[in-house]
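Exam revision sheet. Question 4 asks you to relate a sequence to its structure. Input first:
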Amino acid sequence: MEKIEEKTEEKTEIKKKDFFYRGQNVDYLKTLDVRESAKYFPSRSRRTILRNFDKIEQFIKKCEKKVVKNKKIKTHLREIVIVPKMVGLTIGIHNGRNFQELTILPEMMGHTLGEFSPTRSKVNHGTAGIGATKSSKAQKK
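Answer key, structure tokens:
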């Protein structure tokens, strides 16, 4: 009995591991400026962040204002690169028809918002109609 109790106590003590992105803790990356955190991204993402710095900064400011007012964040900007300051936010991303809610996780850093909101859905074909196949024509007569 004592062995079972010891095992359950050990399991409760285990904490979720912190997520590290390129050797840095996410909490540390959140404290950095967007340009400083861009140093840890792959080259394509880094280039996009540095070229569109103003657009990303404006988007983050709008997100922070809406979070304070408890409003939903919605955007058509699918090309925005996910930076550490966005981690934890829930954003509605437009896919051409409606807004898909997405909670930003640390694993999504360096990717664009559009990658997580597909514009095309899976097509489910139904059964063939009357006259669509040779066998259905034979049944019709």
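Marking note for examiners. The mean pLDDT is 87.
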